[in-house]
Amino acid sequence: MPTPRRRLASTCVGTVTAGLLATGAALAAPDEEAPKGSDIAMGAYLDYGPPGVARIPFLSRWLGGKEIRVGHTYLPGDRWAGIEGNVDFLTDWAEWRQEEDDRMFVLNVPMQERNEERVPDRQVAQLIRVGAQGEYDRHFKRLAERLVELGVPDTVIVLGWEMNGTTYTHRCGPDPENWKRYWKRAVAAMRSVPGQKFKFDFAPNRGTDAIGWTKCYPGDDVVDIIGMDSYDQGPGQDFDDQITQPYGLQEHVDFAKAHGKEISYPEWGLYRRGDNAEYVRRMLTWIEQHKPLYHTITDYCPHGVWQCKQNPRSSKVFKDALTPQKPGPVIPTPVIPTPVIPTPVVPTPVVPTPQVPTPQIPTPQVPTPQAPSVPPVVPPVDVPVEPSVVPSVEPSVVPAPVSPSPEVPVVEPSPAVPSPAAPSPAVPSPAAPSPAAPSPVAPSPAVPAATPKPAEPTPPKPSENNTQWCVPLNFGEWLSKLVGNQAVCVKLDWRKGFLWPF
After folding, report:
1. Domain spans of the chain?
2. End-to-end CA distance of the chain
3. Which fold is adopted by the domain 4-322?
4. Among 101, 208, 251, 225, which Cα is nearest to 157's?
5. Among 180, 203, 330, 424, which residue is least crowded by beta carbons within 10 Å?
6. Which one-letter DSSP state was computed for residue 238?
């Protein structure tokens, strides 16, 4: 795609500025080794002569230190002397290539002089036949000797590029069969030079153009790489069309795989559709997916993204994609010890057995009754006693011992109405024992001593026309056993009128 005549016209200017650019490059080149990005060899066509060599470090800096491994230039096709390599700038490129072992020097070589003079098809066909007969072999042999002499015997030779188009005199269309024979003779002439290790790159235009490029393929024995020049132009409306069109990007990949060859993209860039960032993004993605041996973008207007300032959006995409990602500081992964969580010891709750106290029933101390020598004088009690309340006790009769209940209620006399004298449950009233009766036997600790059971007083039953009225009190079973049956008695005078005490 670049025009050799335009390039040669600027030779003087480039030679003058080369020294200044080279000096600036040496001063501005990064001191530290930049991190490497993709392992695909990448380059750009920056200029054919020394300025192109001098600009490489600046492009690398613009790309954040990315290594530019491919140097790409073109031999002039105006005369056979240029095709033979009799140009000074080859020395500059040879020196650049020799500085690093992993660098690659790519050289586009015309197959005819007057290569850009729009020679008609009739004359092109005649020139092809002359070449197929071996008339031009010596020119290619001299080029091979020149490259070996310069120390670049492993140069990638892009011979007769874009042969399927209409631009160059070395095109294939006017006579494809003889063109293939001519290619074979040129390759054989260069391989005949001792010390050579050239690789020959067959690189048509994408698409059909003037002829399907597979019709120009000279054979696997004389081709090492199958390349393709692919600019953002028709045929096809978008990048998907560029992939699927006849003789497009996909067919290129498939054809190379079928022939066991590596692929390349010696020329690619913007063109008919202007600042098309989507094309640049898709092309870089395609390159990354299919891993060509190398690729070089044509970096001058209208194709470029660095030297050409009219494509800012595409330039940003290109730069962002190819700038190496600098690794951040290595932060060691903190070792977090696994916490040892002790198994909680849950004590078995000790439920105390409730201690139910055994009720202590006091054993009543029953004194042995002593017969008094003199009967006690009992003062008269001024309390009327109903004959039915107080049971009569015969002095001469000793009651049989009766086991009292563990809890002997104590009958308290009513505060309002004094109850008749009753024997105390703790100390029964002594009865005069019969002289012949034996003394009471002391009870065992578990059984209380026999004590005469006092007769429970019967609440007085009011007689007819009686002024005293008694009401029995109920304290419950337990309390009643403790205090005995009680009654509240009131005196009512029926004759003086009735007044309820409550």
Report:
1. 4-322, 463-502
2. 135
3. TIM Barrel (3.20.20)
4. 225
5. 330
6. S
Q: Which is more confidently placed, 40 or 403?
A: 40
| Average of per-residue pLDDT across 292-319 | 97
**Cβ contacts of 436 within 8 Å, gap of 6 or more:** none
117 Cβ contact list (under 8 Å, min separation 6)? 169
Pairing of the two strands 262-269 and 294-298: parallel
Using DSSP, how many helices (H) and how many strands (E) does the chain show?
Answer: 13, 11
Query: For residue 51, is pLDDT > 90?
Result: yes
Angstrom distance (rounded) from CA 389 to CA 458: 6
Which of 380, 392, 394, 404 lies closest to 431, judged by CA?
394
Q: How confident is the model at residue 134 (pLDDT cuts 50, 70, 90)?
A: very high
Please give the DSSP secondary-structure letter assigned to residue 204. P
| Strand, coil or helix: 494 | coil
The alpha helices in 151-217, defined as continuous H runs, are: 176-191
CA–CA distance, 399 with 146 (Å, rounded to integer): 160
pLDDT in tens, 268-288: 999 999 999 999 999 999 999
- pLDDT on residue 237: 86
Q: Which pTM does this prediction carry?
A: 0.61
Count CB-CB contacts under 10 A for residue 7.
Answer: 20
> Distance between CA 368 and CA 439 in Å, rounded?
8
Determine the average pLDDT of the residues in 158-166: 98
Count the alpha carbons within 13 Å of 188 in the hemisphere toward its beta carbon.
Answer: 15
Return the axis-axis angle of helices 11-28 and 50-62, rounded to nearest 10°: 40
Beta-carbon count within 10 A of 463 CB: 8
Q: The tokens 């009569």 sit on which residue?
A: 392
